[in-house]
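Record type: ASSEMBLY
Status: queued
Input:
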Amino acid sequence: MSARRRVVLASANKGKLAEVQALLEGSGIELRSLSEFEMPDVEETGLTFVENAIIKARAACVASGLPAIADDSGLEVDALGGEPGVHSARFAGIHGDDQANNALLLERLAQVPGSGRSGRFRCVVVSLAHAADPAPLICEGIWEGRIADHPRGGGGFGYDPLFVPRGMSMTSAELSPAEKNRLSHRAQALRKLIERLTMAVA
Amino acid sequence: MSARRRVVLASANKGKLAEVQALLEGSGIELRSLSEFEMPDVEETGLTFVENAIIKARAACVASGLPAIADDSGLEVDALGGEPGVHSARFAGIHGDDQANNALLLERLAQVPGSGRSGRFRCVVVSLAHAADPAPLICEGIWEGRIADHPRGGGGFGYDPLFVPRGMSMTSAELSPAEKNRLSHRAQALRKLIERLTMAVA
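Status: finished
Output:
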């Protein structure tokens, strides 16, 4: 086994940090939080999930001098042509206003019956070895489901109260954190990425 | 089988068009050249292969109104810390000046013995369903090899006269077009992408 490698997660979200930390258990990779460093204010100007994730990872490399992992994710609703997609966090206009975003989503789907409310959470994670790394590792996770008629559950964040995973009746906000971390789009993407990162370490 | 789909290749290079066309044989996908449309002048401002490929594919979607495939590729030389990488086409300063690029590469490696001249061609291909597609299909191909002491062969383009594929003694410029199209980084990446595109068609 080679020496422990340090990697910074391009996020100040403690929940996300804990989730990635748990997935890295025993991998020989030591996760650092971006909040330990002089944090850049990153503008997510990319038009795709992968461009946004690369932008965030690059900024974290610059801030920390370490390799970085970043994610970008969103909810795609088929009846809305894939929206809110990359605009998920600012669907109703204010970045991160979960309540307004969920309300707008319900409003847009008001005339759409249950059978037409299919959608999915998509997450893209990237890892950059350094700020000028031309070839990031890129992995994707997809969580299929449908949009509920009203919000349920107090867990998770974002659209979790409205997202019913395929084969379930509960929303993802009603799952335990452990269950969500086993199933979610982010967990799926991170598991693939960590598998590739730890192969590279070995 | 569904109706034929048209896809534009974000390139005006006839050799590349023929190569992709051959790989698409029997797939139900009809390839169009970007030269049929009002061509945009695309600035490859991305710092990674995937960002550049997305930029090119998006411009091709806008120009054609069709789904687009684009590639970005380069040569990574270990003794040069991965350079020329994303700068491969303009290593010596002028975009596409193969002779100057090859001469500079030989100069940089002048003191590096054969055992240290390892490198690889890397190609990233992306497909966008439309200009605002947030989730491009992304596939990568890697062709391992080493850098020769002097250029050999008149086929291919770019660094082909200096690239000796692993397990071979010829350079990639000495391979027949058919052989190169079977082995190359671009062929590997395109085969993966076409497999995913045709799955989506079926």
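Annotation: DSSP finds five helices and six strands in chain B.
Annotation: Residues 37 and 196 of chain B are 26 Å apart (CA to CA).
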